[in-house]
Structures are given as structure tokens and as C-alpha cells.
Design brief:
220 residues; Endonuclease III, domain 1; 0% strand
């Protein structure tokens, strides 16, 4: 297969498996999505979805959030990990939203990246999922898949994002990054990977990755 045929194969296969794709983090508006994505750093979406209802019952908008102390926020979000940094970030960005944006989350990547505890990936997820602006947030699942499929060299998530944006049509980015996340979790995980059910990698996978898989399997 040529590179473009491989890309089309990925798009077609993912559309067949995931014609409709759920957003993994529960939220009701751009603000609650921003907080949920921030909390998801080095934490599972499942755990975030258990913690956010507790936090949002007290504060689901920046005005209510700044009525809480950083310590109160930290106590609630502690199970998500990195709670000292995340609680300061949530409080700080809520203040900025009130002072600069009338309490509204801006639909602007660079404006979001200027906020405390909001990195490029978090900002990309928010503009993509909350506002429908084309973006390609790369998480560990997408980074792994792009390498396994020989679409990137695996050196950095920044490089993976550039390669993904170059390979895939812009009008597909927002749906595709979610399809890839789900596919990576369900069919091509880092641990407990079974190549026999990983339809895409078994067809177009990087030879060295597939060879290594069978070597490990033979050693078991």
C-alpha cells in the first residue's frame, strides 16, 4: 500500500468501527470541559468523570470556583493526582476568565495556552471538542498508534501532531483524534496488546513493531 492508501484504510476502518464517537470526558459547556481536560493529565478519564460531578456540584463556572479556596479545590480533586498544581491552575484560570473574558472560555488556542496549567494538548482538546475548531490533540494513545503505523518517528508528541496534521484531511481532525483515542484503548493498547484483534496494525503496522511483538510472544 502507498502512504495515501494506508491513510485511507485507517479512515475507513475507524469510520466502520466508530461511526459515532463519544467524547470521553463528561462536561456540559466549554468551562467544565476545560476543567475536566486539565484534571485528566496523568489521570484516567474514568477517574476524572467520578471527581468532576463532586467539584461541579460546588462550582461549575468560574464565578463559583473563585469563591472556593485553592485548598478546598485541592481536597476534592486529590484522587486525580498532581492536585497542588491542578488546584492552583483551576483557581487561577477561573480568575483570568472573569477578569479578561467575562467568565467565558475563549475559542482561541493561544489565549487558552496562556492560562495556568493549560498546555498545548489541553487547549487543543477544548477548541476542538467545545468549539469545533480543527485541532489534533495528541495523547499517549495517538502517539503510540502513529508510531506503530509508521506514520511518525515517535521522537516527540509535537512531531507526531505535525505528521498527523500533514497526513490526515483537516475536516477529519476533530472526529479522528477521538476515534484514535478509543481505538488505541480498545484494540491497540500499550499493555496486554493482542495483534490478532488490532485490525489496523496487523495490516499496515511498522515491520519492526510487528516483529518485536512476535518475538515477545514466542518468548512467553
Amino acid at each position: 500500500m502507498t502512504k495515501s492508501e494506508k491513510v485511507q484504510f485507517v479512515l475507513d476502518t475507524l469510520d466502520a468501527i466508530y461511526p459515532e464517537i463519544p467524547v470521553p470526558l463528561d462536561h456540559k459547556d466549554p468551562y467544565t470541559l476545560l476543567i475536566a481536560v486539565l484534571l485528566s493529565a496523568q489521570c484516567t478519564d474514568e477517574r476524572v468523570n467520578k471527581i468532576t460531578p463532586i467539584l461541579f456540584a460546588k462550582a461549575d463556572n468560574p464565578y463559583d470556583m473563585v469563591k472556593m479556596t485553592v485548598e478546598e479545590i485541592q481536597e476534592i480533586i486529590r484522587p486525580c493526582g498532581l492536585s497542588p498544581m491542578k488546584s492552583k491552575g483551576i483557581y487561577g484560570l477561573s480568575q483570568i476568565l472573569i477578569e479578561k473574558y467575562n467568565g467565558e472560555v475563549p475559542a482561541d488556542l493561544e489565549a487558552l495556552k496562556e492560562m495556568p496549567a493549560v498546555g498545548h494538548k489541553t487547549a487543543s482538546v477544548v477548541i476542538s471538542q467545545a468549539f469545533g475548531i480543527p485541532a489534533f490533540p495528541v495523547d499517549t494513545h495517538i502517539h503510540r498508534l502513529m508510531y506503530r503505523w509508521n506514520f511518525t518517528n515517535g521522537k516527540s508528541v509535537e512531531q507526531t501532531e505535525k505528521d498527523a496534521k500533514r497526513l490526515f484531511p483537516k475536516d477529519r481532525w476533530n472526529k479522528l483524534h477521538l476515534q484514535l483515542v478509543w481505538y488505541g484503548r480498545q484494540y491497540s493498547p500499550a499493555r496486554g496488546w493482542n495483534l490478532e484483534i488490532d485490525i489496523i496494525t496487523s495490516v499496515i503496522g511498522r515491520k519492526s513493531v510487528i516483529n518485536e511483538y512476535y518475538k515477545k510472544k514466542a518468548r512467553k
